[in-house]
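Example with several molecule types.
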Amino acid sequence: MARYGMALDYKSCINCKACETACKEENGILMGADSHRIWVGTGEIEGQYPMLDIVSNTFYPSQCQHCEEAPCEEVCPTQATYYDEGGIVRVDPEKCILCSYCMNACPYDARYVDNRTMTVDKCNFCADTRLARGETTTACQNTCPTKVRIFGDLDDPNSEISEVLRTREHFSLKANLGTKPKLFYLT
Amino acid sequence: MKIRDYIPMREDFSIKSLLSFEKTAVNILLAAVILGFLALFVVGVAIYLQHGHHAYNVTREHPWGLLIGVYIFFVVSSTGLCIVGSLGDVFGFKDYMMISKRAIFGSIVTIVAGFAVIAFEIGHPVTMLIYNVVSPGLTSAIWWMGTLYGLYLTFMIVEFYFLLNNKMKKARIFGLTGLLVGLAAHSNLGGVFGFLNARQISNGVYYPTYFILTAFITGIFIAFIMFGFRYKLNFPENAKKLLMGLAKIQALLISILIFFVTWKMLTDIYGGMPNRAEVAIHILGSWTFWAEVFLAMLIPLFLIIKDMGRNPIVLFWASMGGMIGIFFMRYNLVHDTQLKPLQMLKLKEYQLAPQWIEYFPSSTEIMISLGGLGLCMLLYYIGTKAFNLDETH
Amino acid sequence: MKVEISRRKFLQGSVVMSVVGATAISATSLLSKGSKPERVSFKNTKTQNGDAHEIATLCEMCVNKCAALARVENGVITKLNPNPMFPKSKNMLCARGNAGIQSVYDPDRLKYPMIRIGEKGEGKFKRVTWDEAYEAILHGTDKFPGLEKILDEEEDNRSSLLFCAGEGMAEHTFKQFYQAFGSANWLNHSSICLQTVASGYGVTIGAYPLADLDNAEYIIMAGANRAEAIVTPDTMDAFKRTKRRGAKLICIDPRFTNTAAKSDKWLAIKPGTDLAFVLALTYVTLTEELHNKEYVAENFNGFDEYQNSVISNKYTPEWAEPITGIKAKDIYTIAREFAAHAPKAVYYPGRRSTFAKNDFQLRRAMAIFQALHGAIDTKGGLVFGSTLPLKEHEGLQPLYEKAQARAMGKKTPNEEGHTGYDDCAVVSGGGSWISWRNRYIEDRMEYNVRGMFCYKHNPMANMPNTAKTAQMLKKMELVVTIDTMPSDTVMYADVVLPECTYLERTDPIKTFGGVEPSFAVRNKVIEPMFESKPVIDILRGLTKKISKPLFEISKKYDEEIQDEIEDSDEESVYAEFDLTLPFLHSQEEINHHSVAMYIGAAEKLDKDGVFYPKQDKYYKQLSVNEYQYYPENKKAYSIKGGKPITPSGKVECVMESFTSKGIDAMPIWRDEYEFNVPKGKFKLLTGRHAQFTQSGTANNTMLLDLMPENFIWINKRVAEMKNIKFADMVEVSSSIGKTRLKAYPTEKIAPDQVFFIHGFGQECEALTWAYKNGGNDNTIIEDHIEPVYGAAAMHETNVEIRKV
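Resulting structure tokens for the full complex:
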């Protein structure tokens, strides 16, 4: 039994989108604006040239937060969304009825509809591809040029992610909602 | 016909009787509208079956569209009619007895229409029937809502059966149970929105309670419309009396609703919850909100108060407008919940940062929605031909 | 194991269809297409968990050559992962690297040899066999002449054929063909790439250096955009730890780039004025005596002269402020901070095309500024690194008596008595592409050049003034292209030879110098699809066909050959001219031979793709993301004890030899360098992007999914005045042409400048997704020639913008 999470050294992100592409190739994600499991977001620059606000252009890599109190899991009428043995929030396409309630409930916009199965899909930390083969990294982490991501077991005190979270300040997105995300942004 | 042994149908009911109606301009127009809507339904469903959700303008950011709004419109109507119908046969208000059977039948018809519409919104209705039972999501408001509405429909049908057979006692038991289940289902529908902690504008107790209130209002609007057609606007005294009573209740309910909406807006805007005020202000700027306010609240209230509910013909028309207002009320609820993007950053270089989520229904969604209305009208028409919906003694 | 609808099957299906319909297709345009289909991924299945094997290869989506591990399932490449063993790419693969799969399975790729049957540039081709294609190159068809005819008519002037190539691991293989063929006309990417920066550093400190960004404490990144123009390992080193570890990053760029977004300070500079900025930094350094005096005394040539020049010309920060737009106080601060951190301070050399005409002098000034602090060949500064020697594959360089020298202007003294070439002062090995082209279309050649071989190179899309390139290609009587995709240049070909993509071929082993030197190899991942072949196989077949007949022509005109044959026998003379010799062996054999001196290297390279001595001992994983390649004390930070590696062993401040060619001996500022845009016009800037590599990735659906088209950056306030809103279509025009694309109003750019990325708006209809997708910059960038090396100066064009 593990409890998988991911720490993001987001200040190292250069918005190259290697992660997004690696995710698409690894997990066979369809193309199109709506279909992405992971993404890098940024605000439009603020200020007037040349007095620009660098911080307004910060890059935020993101994806499913794998919340411990996941709203998407709570609202699913058929338990298609579930926590797997690694604490990863996953969708069983067999049970998904595409009521889209989870898409509405997820505070992070992490869910979308896969146009092949017409069921809701999302990041699963490569659980059925890389992790299933015994690999220890996700596609996004592995490919990242500036090594933004650290994936690992939060329950293992010796794991790198546990170590990093013990020693570096971090925050979670929309923490006020009480969803207890397992994506940690290192500052 | 064996079926008549169990269900007391009208003696003259046949396929032929369905086609024979007074050929007035209004009736012909109505027939054309029903057939037209049903044709749209068939076309819409055909497109949906071919293209699935691609035929809808729903997106990742706006996963619920017009069909959810229309579904809510129908099930709220159903709950409302159930409440109106219960006044007589459950709660024993004699004056309202004459509408009970009609209203209960109406509640069945509207919820069937609602189910017909939602069947083409839920991506996998068959999977739903299976896994609703196999792996029920007990923390899900949708599960409770769906399950309770299923039960509710059963109770309504049984109640209607006993009403037709004039077994009032049994009808009352099933009516009361049905009403309670219906109210539970209905407040759960409000809960579907109320439980969304991602959507500050909808989160909380407001929608589950407000839904009961607006259901009652909707039921009364429909009661006016049904009686308007039943009596071709030439109301007998007992009907006038009933409608006057309903009008007074309606005035009270609408006043409460205005109170609700006002306070909702006030707390939304001045309550200081992060990003709720801007959504509320955005809603105030949309014409659909004002369509709701004027058609479903201010105009009917004014017209009722003007004559103290003594002018059922005017109120018939006000109720027609009221139902349009109620439609916008449901549509707004669905759309406004999703107005604010959950992800406010630019994901692509050449993109404007999302501000508000835009949505306009696709033609397929509109066709299926009108089809639902057509189906509802057709079933009601068949009902009037097949059953005696008037009070019998 | 199931791979649902595998790409291979999908494409095999299309092969059958094409074969069946071959006769029908051949008579019509191969390029007729309806409306643009939806973008699809050519591998829309996830990786499977059954049988799979991994092959170590090197990426070719850009020039970096990052190491990749290709996952192959059922003969289909399903994923490209970073190969952690390579010190250069340090366990990373960018978006393009990941999207490389799409380039293999791109349905638009060139599949068969083709010869032209329509008018030149029309894009009408006929599918032929390889032998028919080689035959056409030798003998021509009714539409175009063959080599035999051309060389016979030109009396064996081998230089009547031009050879040009883009950058790549097999460029050398193609170059061997050029050398054996005996032409003097070789044009490669250098003059539209980093010629001036490489040479500027080369003549000043001895080589174009690397930067040890991993250890630098202070980095000035001026005119370089490492967050978007990814260079390994610089990008990772600069951004992975910069902020956390405390290295300060100063970004100097007219645009607010992603690099600016990651910097501690971004200073907007007026385009083309970096030289003034560096001179002002130098002024502060010299007047405040911030430089390493001991180092300078020991290692500089002409320091006093340069110091006098900088000080007497009063290149003060106050002088530079109005020229550059950078505040004087910032210049003082940067000069002082740089000195405080030196030698762990880097004025980043950059790695880009020439933007302004003063680029060569800018690079010299940068190199001298860096050297003033003794921050070269040292940890944390600029480094040369060491290179593992590789046994070169022997080529063939016969002497053809009748072959003329490079067609590149005469060394006639010009009106000021300078003796440089007509087009530019110095002609480098790679030549000056645009001046050669312009001279050619203006009929200013000393002899006839009638045909060209073009390998992995797309002059139509890669250099300024597309109209002139088209004119050149039309004038060439025989154009042979070797490429993987139907590029805009391929459309002008007479013979099209399809090369396989990088994942279908083994390329020559390459030695990667640096602080952590290594060998790496591109191993073949899958067999070439369709009838495509690696360039070495193509040249083997081609030379077999043409070698003997062409020798016959030489025999006819070349008196030396005639004499030699008389002296010995024809066979032994022919052996010196046998074009097939460089291509007799397979690439795998050549590779094994080239590293034979390292025990176990060949096997290691086959298996892991990377080798360096003591790798087994040194290489280890440090954390989930990080690896050690060399222990700290084995890294080649310094190879000459901090000294420059010029022939004199000194930093060359003054290059007297340049004066006679009309080039300033020292970097000085000239008034004509000042930034200037007429009112109502905009300076057009170009630049790189992390998801696209020039025109080469223009048809990659996976990348287009990240950014569907290019937009033109225009200042928000200016756009508002011109009533241009986001995504409005605008027409951008210069003196030579116009293009259309959508607008992106933003404050990231100055009011008098516009920018859009290169490589979009392709003209070839056979590129389903790239065709007319976005704006094409080279149709509007004017062909300004940089005076020293004849490089294309890309930021010298003013444009107008009109909403359409």
